[in-house]
Design a protein that fits this description.
5 strands, 88 residues, five-stranded mixed sheet, 34% helix, alpha+beta
């Protein structure tokens, strides 16, 4: 990820993932976002500008080239999010 990409996201500490996140990984991202009261982003391995962004509320958004490709509300289980991410 380039510095320009990070600034476009307006987020700090973007994590780079080697594989699609597991349910436990999604739970960790949701917890981190809530504890820091700031959205967190994880760069996904299948695209140069593909991110999973998690809000402090727990909403998960899949961005592809900074365009929303899919999203999951906080009431969606981490298992559901992980399964649907693997299907993309």
């Amino acid at each position: 990820m380039t510095a320009n990409s990070a600034s476009r996201l307006q987020m700090h500490n973007v994590k780079n993932l080697d594989a699609s996140p597991t349910p436990d990984g999604i739970d960790q991202l949701r917890t981190e976002a809530q504890e820091h009261a700031e959205a967190v982003a994880a760069a996904l391995p299948w695209g140069s500008d593909t991110y999973l962004v998690v809000s402090p509320r727990g909403t998960c958004v899949l961005l592809d080239d900074f365009v929303t490709r899919d999203s999951w509300e906080p009431n969606k289980s981490s298992e559901t999010v992980a399964t649907e991410l693997q299907a993309t």
